[in-house]
Design goal:
Blueprint (H helix, E strand, L loop, with lengths): L6 H15 L47 H18 L15 E2 L10 E5 L12 H10 L10 E3 L8 E6 L9 E7 L5 E9 L11 H16 L22 H10 L5 E2 L4
Parallel strand pairs: 2-3, 2-4, 4-6
Antiparallel strand pairs: 1-7, 5-6
Helix pairs in contact: 3-4
């Protein structure tokens, strides 16, 4: 029996035999993998990012007192969801595109009509005796509106909610009418002033009666709280083309008075 070969000597012997069979050439080492050619793009400079929290992610508010930030945020999100759910049927969603968007409307005016005072200025250039008659006709196109908000004429300027004034010529940039609506921080309207043009220029011909009535109807829509519509089929389109409120105008006004007023912005 041959003597036993130590393990280290045996391994060396196997290596010698393999190298002899391979022609004695040492086995080259495996080269390292080449570096990746994908370079991470540098991150842009820090910029403010607005996020819109989902209401499902909010903690429960059971037992929370009314008026807490969580309650306010949940109420705001509920109004936003309702507006978005209405889709193209209404156009209040146009307010959601602005950070300071606010729903503005009159409070508790379904029981007490809004009082409207028309300023008579017979000394104004271009004054026409039918100026008030035409403006009242425009106002009456909101009679029986879907929100149930009434409009009635008053002769007491001190008690008026809405004041209508007339100007002799186009106000600016071919604008035939403009409305200033004043409201407080929670979106409650307190007073409005409507200005209606009588003619295109100081010395030009008067605007047609139907144009003036249509402009008046459009401005009364703003006085009620409606924004502009993006559809020319609505009276509240930026350049009104129809005589009175469309079904979409009515649905938008109804929704406006069905939800609480106030800001719609979220953190």
């Amino acid at each position: 029996m041959s003597p036993r070969v130590p393990a280290v000597l045996f391994a060396a012997l196997v290596t010698v035999i393999l190298l002899a069979r391979l022609g004695g050439a040492p086995v080259p080492p495996v080269p390292p993998a080449p570096p990746s050619t994908e370079v991470a793009a540098p991150l842009p400079a820090a910029s403010p990012v607005r996020t819109r929290p989902r209401v499902e992610q909010l903690p429960g508010v059971t037992g929370a007192p009314s008026g807490t930030p969580t309650m306010d945020l949940e109420a705001t999100l509920a109004v936003r969801r309702r507006i978005l759910r209405e889709g193209d049927r209404v156009y209040l969603d146009s307010l959601l595109a602005t950070t300071d968007s606010t729903l503005v409307r009159w409070r508790d005016r379904t029981r007490q009509p809004l009082r409207v005072y028309f300023v008579v200025d017979t000394g104004m250039p271009g004054w026409s005796p039918d100026a008030v008659v035409v403006a009242v006709a425009g106002m009456s196109r909101w009679s029986g509106n879907a929100a149930g908000v009434g409009l009635e004429r008053t002769d007491d300027s001190a008690r008026a909610d809405i004041t209508v004034r007339f100007v002799s010529a186009v106000i600016a940039d071919s604008t035939y009418g403009v409305t200033e609506l004043n409201w407080d921080g929670d979106g409650t309207a307190h007073r409005a002033t409507i200005r209606l043009a009588m003619q295109q220029t100081d010395s030009g011909p008067p605007l047609p009666r139907e144009v003036r009535a249509r402009v008046a109807a459009h401005e009364f829509g703003h006085a009620l709280g409606l924004p502009h519509s993006g559809s020319f089929r609505d009276l509240m389109y930026r350049t009104a083309r129809i005589e009175g409120p469309s079904r979409r105008d009515q649905a938008t006004l109804q929704l406006l008075y069905a939800v609480p007023p106030g800001p719609l912005r979220t953190p």
